Amino acid sequence: MLSRLVYRPHGEVNRCPSCKGPRLENLDLIKSRRHEEKGDRLAFVAGCRSCGLIFVNPPPSKAELAQMYSATGQWNQERNADTINGADDDDNHDASEASPVEQRYAQLVQEWAAKLLPGQQPLSVLDFGCGRGPLLDLLKDAGFLTYGLDPATRHLVHKHKMLEAIPAEPTFDIVVSKHVFEHVPDPMSLMVQLRQSLKPGGFLLCGMPSMDELTTHKKLRYCINWSHHITAYTRQSLTALLTHAGFVVEAFPTPTRSDRLICVATSGVGALPTDPLSDARVQLRAFRKARDGRLRQLFPKRILAALQNARRI
User: Fold this and answer.
1) What is the CATH number of the domain that holds 305?
2) Structural domain of residue 126, as residue ranges?
3) Cys-Cys crosslink for 299: which of 82, 193, 242, 304, Cβ 3.0 to 4.6 Å?
4) What tens digit of pLDDT does each residue of 94-148 get?
5) pTM, 2 dp
6) What is the Cα–Cα distance from 178 to 131, expressed in whole angstroms?
7) 42-59 as b/e, with b when 16 or more CB fall inside 10 Å?
8) How many domains does the chain have?
9) Judging by beta carbons within 10 Å of its beta carbon (0-12, 13-18, 19+), is residue 38 exposed, middle or buried?
């Protein structure tokens, strides 16, 4: 009887996928088809109180991720049709022409290069997850030495040096990671690898969906879902993750849309937020209150999930 009142989905993890710590908190519920055949129709939006990671729980397995991002997997099929999470042209990683987002990132690369690396020419830049290279095209035209890394499209990019892995030694002045972290179950490890590939004085420019303005843009499924965007971010939680990975956040430049987040970070020892989940907690509670009313917020998350999974409320 107790198991019917407390929801525990198949594959749920009790440690953070990034820092491996046990201090997890269930922040919200979302629909999931990961274990639908086993009767599970929901997943938790979980948060780690130690490192700030916000992730879908249960997370996808390594086999699921490999299949998802294979040449014939769901991700490539859907992004070719421009249908992922209600994506528009700005989200299409395969666009061969620069969108307003790429133009904004190219502008930021040049602005921050002038600020942090003045007088150093030419500068090398890695676009991690470059798609067909529209951002690299802009940067090459601006005089940068351009490198890309994207297993799905490396055979389509010919203007830039394409890599098969992140170098383990300092190689680049600038690393760009645009809308990649939300697809990664352990973004902190990836952040560490990207930091190690930066030369002294270099910087990281990264972007992802933002939960900071969730009550305004109302795109929860864009910020996190069971299949593609499996980790989510606020400025606060991203700061915590980057700090744990050995970065110092320099700025959060203005993005092109309110559901986006852009960050500039450099190597160093930064200050950790006291509570890396507090902003996410506030946004999700306000979002649910406006959408579902106050009554459901009175239930503990596991009991609410059990009732919703049984379709009793």
Assistant:
1) 3.40.50.150
2) 2-309
3) 304
4) 555 778 999 999 999 999 999 999 999 899 999 999 988 999 999 999 999 999 9
5) 0.91
6) 10
7) bbbbbbbbbbbbbbbbbb
8) 1
9) exposed
